[in-house]
Every structure is written in C-alpha cells, then in structure tokens.
Amino acid sequence: MIKVVRGNPTPEELAAALAVVQARAAAVANQPSGAPTPPDAWADPARVARHRLPAPGPASWGRSYWPG
Fold it and tell me: Which stretches of the chain drop beneath a pLDDT of 50?
C-alpha cells in the first residue's frame, strides 16, 4: 500500500510514481536469487576521492577547501 504523506500530487504525478515503483519491483522479482547485487554507486569510496589532494606546502591551506 502506498500512502501520500505530504503534498497533493496530481493523478499524473501519482501514476508516474507508481509506474517507477512497479518497474523496480518487477526488476527485483526477475533477478535470479543467487545473483550478487552490484554495490551502490553512492557508497563507492572512489566517488569521494576522484581528485588528488592538494600538494603540501606553505600555501596549501588556501587549496584545502572542498571543491564544488
């Protein structure tokens, strides 16, 4: 059962959300039970460390911000 907790979705928005949930459920149901699941991309440590750290030196404090 799906319940709208906040907001007032239009029938089209609700249908789109339900289509996504149904498609995901169908994909999981069709996956073989013994198959390993791939790791989620957001949990990959390489995602955070894609860029090299600033080189140490007298002005390195100015390059130590988190790039956006």
Answer: 68
Position 66 scores a pLDDT of: 57
Report in angstroms the alpha-carbon separations of 48 from 44, 51, 62, 67. Answer: 8, 8, 20, 11
Helix/strand/coil for 27: helix
Alpha carbons 20 and 65: distance in angstroms, whole number: 38
Cα–Cα distance for residue pair 46/50, rounded to 1 Å: 6
- Rounded to whole angstroms, the Cα distance separating 24 from 29 reads 9
50: nearest Cα among 41, 40, 59, 39: 41
- Sign of torsion over alpha carbons 49, 54, 56, 62: negative
